[in-house]
Design a protein that fits this description.
Layout lengths: L6 E6 L2 E6 L18 E4 L2 H27 L5 E7 L5 E7 L7 H11 L2 E6 L2 H8 L10 H4 L9 H6 L24 H10 L6 E4 L2 E9 L4 E7 L2 E6 L4 E2 L3
Parallel strand pairs: 5-6
Antiparallel strand pairs: 1-2, 1-3, 4-5, 7-8, 7-11, 8-9, 9-10
Helix pairs in contact: 1-2
């Protein structure tokens, strides 16, 4: 029986690769069985040594990638490189500002490295996910820990949450808007829909007044009853005045 943290050899579309068990064995729907690739066996010390050798060769492959790309005047930046465990396949991820014709680069790399090479272009968010790092919050990047896919994020989400609209203050290390803006967007939106507007006349148990502010997280509104009295009232206890 495999345990979390065990190193195993798995079958992929590119060939055998070294992997790590991250969840306990579990049952899945029968219709999904055909989508899964098999775990061939638990990794041996020899497998780990071989994987380490190819990891070092992958670093050399990145150097060769940079060298050839420079000679061909291709504006490409390598992000990562990985060999299959049998060394027959080299997979390189790279970033570029636009579409790049890298067929000659692949040809030269395959010829010089004596292996099959595949290049795949990724975006800034994918690069951050692969390289990891710390976000503005001081914690490891969400994308490198638990995000399996990137949800659409818009500057409107920052506005609805009362955050700065300065892109430099709501962007992650990838240069794109923070993924976490989407985490509470629906909650802020739902509370905002039932909240009165700032400056709106309302009725409360303490009397009539004017809304001076909304606290989305507490789901309350600040209501000015008179010039010297501002009270905090739960949103569900406020009655907007008609007209």
């Amino acid at each position: 029986m495999l345990a979390i943290g065990d190193r195993v050899i798995v079958e992929t579309k590119r060939g055998p690769e070294l992997a790590t068990v991250v969840t306990f064995p579990k049952q899945i729907p029968l219709e999904k069985v055909g989508e899964l690739k098999p775990v061939i066996r638990k990794a041996t010390p020899e497998d780990l040594e071989q994987a380490n050798e190819f990891r070092e060769k992958a670093v050399q492959a990145i150097d060769k990638f940079v060298e050839i790309a420079s000679e061909l005047n291709l504006p490409m930046k390598p992000v990562s490189a990985r060999y299959t465990l049998d060394g027959k396949y080299l997979f390189i991820l790279f970033t570029a500002d636009g579409r790049v014709d890298f067929r000659e680069l692949v040809h030269q790399l395959s010829s010089q490295l004596k292996t099959r090479v595949e290049l795949h272009q990724v975006g800034p968010r994918d690069e951050a996910k692969l390289l990891g790092g710390l976000g503005p919050c001081g914690r490891p990047l969400c994308c490198s820990i638990f995000l399996n896919e990137f949800s659409p994020v818009s500057i409107k989400m920052a506005k609805e949450q009362g955050l700065s609209l300065d892109p430099t203050k709501v962007s992650g290390v990838c240069g794109r808007l923070l993924c976490c803006l989407a985490y509470e967007a629906e909650y802020y939106r739902s509370v905002s829909e039932k909240a009165p507007h700032k400056g709106q006349n309302v009725k409360t148990s303490s009397g009539e007044g004017v809304v001076t502010g909304i606290n989305i997280l507490k789901e309350t509104a600040s209501v000015e009853i008179d010039k010297d009295t501002i009270i905090e009232v739960p949103l569900d206890e406020i009655i907007p005045e008609e007209g």
